[in-house]
Design goal:
alpha/beta, 2 domains, 325 residues, five-stranded mixed β-sheet, 14% strand, globular, two-stranded antiparallel ribbon
Length: 325
Amino acid sequence: MPNKYAEKKKWTLKKQHYKVTNWPEYNESLRRRGAIDVWLSEDAIMNWVEGDQRPDGTGTPKHYTDFAIIICHELRQVYRLPLRQTQGFIDSLFRRMKIKLRCPDFSTLSKRLCTLNIKVPRYRKTDRPDNHVHAVAIDSTGLKRFGRGEWHQEKYSLSAKASWRKLHIGVNEDHYIEACVLTNRFGNDDQQVGALLDQIDQPIKHFTADGAYDETPIYEAILAHSPAADIVIPPRATAIVRDDAAPMRNRNLTEIKTHGRMEWQRERRYGQRNFSELAVQRYQRILGDSMHARELKRQQQEAMIGCGIINKMTSLGMPRSYRSA
């Protein structure tokens, strides 16, 4: 964040250098991310099909569990496969493992995706006992719904017209995505804060976001969820102290006026907003910046599964670093 501020002021700052202290462990965790047994575990195999398939008068009973459908879509996103190739890939794995199971057909995978009703990202830190949320940073990014590739546009001088969805996420200080909301491209960032907070059960001690969230209803929503939260949102350049504004916003304004914006950022740990920007970057680099599904309801479940994948990769290991220069 300080670099952005310095760039606007035309200051010259030396590039910061960091050293990673756990390269062997981190390298191994990166390799593990592609291991089949991480995504297709023994637990998944044991819970692949429904145990009791008695007709209940509502149609043909489900043969495959929701857990199996989620695992299939996780494999699809990790290895970036279309549905039919996902089916062939998983069937070949079962044949090699000599297990008498089959992957749901591509049509079943597509239809069942929108019925999963996943409410929060999987594999969160707070899903484990005695793990609490101390800090949360939120941000958003665009995921392409459809559109021509960049090479095709450049070669034939075509319009870059594309349709986008907007992914909003809340990330804790350990890089786990605790909340996720997918909207159309017209969804305002500040209007999604309530939906993100609803997915976080634990109280928040520190909340950071960029200036787009500098709205009084945002402060009210955060304090309603976590009354003791320290809200660190930079006020707009034209903002002034007002009696009808949130007290926390007036406090930020007063501190910036007294100590300067850079000192306020350091004291209030505004740099923790980097966690959300890093999570957005990781999602797009690992899973791609395009959606697989076509309809919004399926895309919302796809985004939930995608955030769960990032969480599972986080649990395998993250780099530990310190500033060297």
